[in-house]
Amino acid sequence: xxxxxxxxxxxxxxxxxxxxxxxxxxxxxxxxxxxxxxxxxxxxxxxxxxxxxxxxxxxxxxxxxxxxxxxxxxxxxxxxxxxxxxxxxxxxxxxxxxxxxxxxxxxxxxxxxxxxxxxxxxxxxxxxxxxxxxxxxxxxxxxxxxxxxxxxxxxxxxxxxxxxxxxxxxxxxxxxxxxxxxxxxxxxxxxxxxxxxxxxxxxxxxxxxxxxxxxxxxxxxxxxxxxxxxxxxxxxxxxxxxxxxxxxxxxxxxxxxxxxxxxxxxxxxxxxxxxxxxxxxxxxxxxxxxxxxxxxxxxxxxxxxxxxxxxxxxxxxx
Length: 318
Prior knowledge:
With 318 residues, the chain is α/β, with parallel strands linked by helices. It contains ten helices and twelve strands. It folds into two domains: 14-85 and 193-309, HUPs (Rossmann fold, 3-Layer(aba) Sandwich); 88-188, Glutamyl-tRNA Synthetase, Domain 3 (Glutamyl-tRNA Synthetase, domain 3, Alpha-Beta Complex), CATH 3.90.800.10. The strands form five sheets. A three-stranded parallel sheet has the order 1-2-3, covered by helices on one side. The chain has a three-stranded antiparallel sheet with strand order 4-5-8.
């Protein structure tokens, strides 16, 4: 493992919630964030907040999300980390990987990748390695083509598609191949897998609690952490909240955000009562009514792994 770059690690012992400020939090987002807080409090970790604002930002959403958690009794232990303030740090991490010969330009569009034949032994949907070993003359030709289109090449991580296994406290072993994932998109935005592991390392996140839709990203992020000389966190992926069709909650599903539910008469007590019932940990006779109830009532060893269906209250939509 490489030694860490100076300034990448500043502290240790924390959990975090890292919502994208793309809109109001829905009940599923909130449950994942509350579970991250509960886990931090149960294990004596700090609870930190990260604003992942490099893409899909809605003005005012970040502050609104913090206010919702404050109303639920939760304040982060430190000021939020804002990703848009850390571009130089991500560039440093990218340069560190490039210095190891692990970064190359990719000139493919999404359509190019979809239409390309899969490389042998690669997982479905993995990047087929089209641009991995091009000659410099070919690269120059592709750069010129993209330049004429007003585009830039993406930057990818050079890998061997080897499988990486991490242990999840709830799900057990998670094994997935690590392909030549994007590190910086063609529009210049640093990619999720790179920046989250850099930020987690910088803030001392030693356990990641988040929705299990991101479970298969954990092996990729563990691999990047090793390459950057960063400590690998432990993982706890919690079940999602979905709509009646089994899909992620969205505005079209009716009243799913905290603000919408409050407008229909839900109280803070109702929110916590639903949390307990949805996790199978508290029924009507012992309903939760506060974050303290949730901290004392959540048993992560006995947490359900199946998805929870959220049915919006009557009058919440068509």
